[in-house]
């Protein structure tokens, strides 16, 4: 029976991947609601679990000779979960990004005025600069690695998109995702505590807040814990932030960093 189940999982690996990801997301949202009362968004927990599973699978997945695989594709190194390599690949990732951007209207962004535009550009550029500086301090001195990790400091989507466009190593791309995940969790946790002191209590300030920080899940989770009515405003500019980061990261920002690297 075990062999039959395994053969079915391998044969329909993409369906298996959807099921595994769905169960992981469901568990993550349950943990978010019961352990953190929604302060840490379920998507952040799901990403963290995915990184943990990838590490464990890469190090300890059983190989055909009875030893460990020590692979490079995370859970996709396990035959039954090979479909996750396609599900998490560049094609579906970029499709999700484009689909998100298609749901936003430029008229809504223009309504925020000059403050919204400045917050977007400042948020993206400052995040890249801080991430690149940290990468340089820890020994990643080439422009590709610095830009990729800088993209991760922007969001955990911008990092791997930038890294894939520039040909960054899997190690650097993983670091960029980890940097974006840490930022997302910090924004979720800190937002309710600082909201009053920074005047985060109206749609306009929420729009600027989302433009400055950009991590959509972090902003949405933090605003949900502060005032759920502000979530759509912050999430809207945060979505634009991701799009601008993906556009500028592998192009303008990379060329700027290359001049100093």
Give a brief rundown of this model.
With 261 residues, this protein is mainly alpha-helical.
Query: Describe the biggest sheet?
Result: none
- Global mean pLDDT: 80
**What percent strand?**
under 5%
Low-confidence stretches: none
Number of helices: 13
Q: Helices and strands: which structural class?
A: mainly alpha
Give the helix/strand layout:
Layout (H helix, E strand, L loop, with lengths): L1 H10 L1 H23 L6 H19 L22 H5 L2 H13 L3 H5 L2 H25 L5 H12 L3 H9 L3 H25 L8 H11 L2 H11 L4 H30 L1
Structure description:
The chain has 261 residues and is mainly α. The protein folds into 2 domains: 2-88, no CATH class; 99-260, no CATH class. Helices cover 76% and strands 0% of the residues. The protein has 13 helices and no strands. It has helices at residues 2-11, 13-35, 42-60, 83-87, 90-102, 106-110, 113-137, 143-154, 158-166, 170-194, 203-213, 216-226, 231-260. The relative contact order is 0.12.
Task: List its salient traits.
261 residues; globular; 2 domains
């Amino acid at each position: 029976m075990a062999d039959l189940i395994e053969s079915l999982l391998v044969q329909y690996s993409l369906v298996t991947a959807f099921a595994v990801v769905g169960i992981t997301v469901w568990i993550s949202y349950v943990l978010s609601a019961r352990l953190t009362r929604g302060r840490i968004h379920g998507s952040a927990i799901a990403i963290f679990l995915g990184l943990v599973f990838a590490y464990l699978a890469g190090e300890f997945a059983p190989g055909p000779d009875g030893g460990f695989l020590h692979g490079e594709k995370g859970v996709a190194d396990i035959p039954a979960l090979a479909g996750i390599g396609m599900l998490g690949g560049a094609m579906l990732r970029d499709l999700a990004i484009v689909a998100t951007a298609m749901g936003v209207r430029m008229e809504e962004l223009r309504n925020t005025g000059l403050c919204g535009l400045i917050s977007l550009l400042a948020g993206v550029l400052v995040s890249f600069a801080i991430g690149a500086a940290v990468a340089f301090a820890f020994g990643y001195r080439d422009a590709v690695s610095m830009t990729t990790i800088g993209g991760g400091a922007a969001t955990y989507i911008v990092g791997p998109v930038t890294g894939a466009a520039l040909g960054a190593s899997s190690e650097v791309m993983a670091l960029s995702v980890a940097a974006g995940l840490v930022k997302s969790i910090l924004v979720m946790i800190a937002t309710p505590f600082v909201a009053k002191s920074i005047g985060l209590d109206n749609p306009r300030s929420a729009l600027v807040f989302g433009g400055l920080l950009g991590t959509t899940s972090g902003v949405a989770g933090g605003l949900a814990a502060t005032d759920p009515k502000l979530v759509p405003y912050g999430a809207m500019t945060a979505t634009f932030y991701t799009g601008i980061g993906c556009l500028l990261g592998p192009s303008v920002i990379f060329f700027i960093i290359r001049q100093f690297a």
